[in-house]
């Protein structure tokens, strides 16, 4: 299961036009002043996957970490393949001078008394249905004074949610959504939770796209992997009719850009200071 998810996520990342910089810019406005006071700057990354965003975050933080200050980067990632790829990503990026700590566990089971300057959930909160409120409160408790919690996720306008909902209708599966969530988490629902807790925050949303052209190429392995990812299902043994029906759903929500078929997957970032 972990292997399958990791390899499909690699294909997803390859086709995803993701704008990681916006979360970094939002963070910059917040952290610039607070980091200089620390002897050790520490970050907790929840569900880093292959570590593409983390690589950029570390690069960004190293600009602000002064001589004599240490940078500690704590990772909570239950998928062993993702942990391996994460290590390889950091190695090939030549990251040095960072003290990494890897926890092979889920965030729900992670325990620490450590306090962090930054905790981020970057496109990982979908995997913790029903736990969001508790995890936000727990994360705020794990921040140092001046620290910040950053959560990035798709907005409700992302067409992947339409596809997943349609898939549940097509296959008639009422049990499709995991227990504790009536739907996958998106930014509007997360905002309701954050507002309900009464937290102050900054939020920015921005367009991102996924190139799904491969789904329309006959016998494309990449296309098959993308279809599985889009519908969060294993369609290998599904009938050709079902596959065709699902492909026409993708076609309906796709838009054409420079001859490519693209899905609109806007994302949003919440930045919540410790309060
Ligand atoms: C969609 S990927 C996002 C990866 C990366 N942050 C990015 O933006 O590309 C979600 C990641 O969350 C991890 N994950 C899933 N459930 C988790 C949990 N309960 N606690 C921590 N991480 C989890 C998955 O293994 C996966 O690596």
Describe the protein in words.
- The chain has 275 residues and is of the alpha/beta class.
- Helices cover 41% and strands 23% of the residues.
- It has nine helices and eleven strands.
- A seven-stranded mixed sheet has the order 4-3-2-5-6-11-7, with helices on both faces. It has a four-stranded antiparallel sheet with strand order 1-8-10-9.
- Helix 3 (52-62) links the parallel strand 2 (40-46) and strand 3.
- The longest helix is centred in the first third of the chain and has 15 residues, at 21-35.
- Bound molecules: S-adenosylmethionine (SAM).
- The site of S-adenosylmethionine has 20 residues, from helix 3.
Write a concise synopsis of the structure shown:
The protein is built from 9 helices and 11 strands. With 275 residues, it is α/β, with parallel strands linked by helices.
Task: Using the alpha-carbon principal axes, give the shape.
Answer: globular
The CATH homologous superfamily is termed Vaccinia Virus protein VP39
- Beta content comes to 15-25%
CATH topology: Rossmann fold
Radius of gyration: 19 Å
Catalogue the unreliable spans. Answer: none
What strand line-up does the widest sheet have?
Answer: 4-3-2-5-6-11-7
Question: What ligands are attached or bound here?
Answer: S-adenosylmethionine
- CATH class division: Alpha Beta
Number of domains: 1
């Amino acid at each position: 299961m972990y292997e399958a998810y990791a390899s499909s996520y690699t294909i997803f990342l390859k086709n995803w036009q993701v704008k990681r910089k916006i979360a970094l810019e939002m963070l910059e406005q917040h952290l610039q002043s607070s980091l200089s006071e620390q002897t050790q700057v520490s970050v907790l990354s929840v569900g880093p996957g292959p570590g593409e965003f983390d690589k950029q975050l570390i690069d960004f933080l190293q600009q602000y970490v002064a001589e004599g200050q240490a940078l500690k980067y704590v990772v909570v990632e239950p998928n062993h393949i993702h942990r391996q790829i994460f290590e390889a990503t950091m190695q090939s990026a030549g990251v040095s001078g960072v003290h990494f700590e890897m926890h092979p566990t889920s965030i729900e089971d992670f325990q620490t008394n450590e306090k962090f300057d930054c905790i981020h959930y970057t496109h990982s909160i979908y995997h913790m249905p029903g736990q969001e409120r508790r995890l936000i409160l727990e994360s705020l408790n794990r921040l140092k004074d001046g620290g910040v919690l950053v959560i990035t996720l798709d907005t409700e306008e992302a067409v992947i949610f339409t596809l997943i909902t349609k898939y549940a209708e097509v296959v008639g599966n009422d049990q499709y959504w995991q227990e504790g969530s009536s739907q996958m988490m998106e930014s509007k629902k997360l905002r309701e939770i954050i507002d309900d807790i009464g937290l102050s925050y900054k939020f920015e949303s921005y367009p991102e796209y996924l190139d799904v052209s491969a789904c329309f190429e006959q016998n494309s392995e990449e296309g098959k992997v993308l279809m599985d990812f889009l519908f969060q299902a294993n369609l290998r043994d599904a009938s050709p009719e079902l596959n065709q029906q699902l492909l026409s759903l993708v076609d309906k929500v796709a838009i054409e850009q420079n001859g490519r078929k693209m899905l609109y997957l806007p994302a949003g970032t919440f930045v919540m200071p410790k309060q």
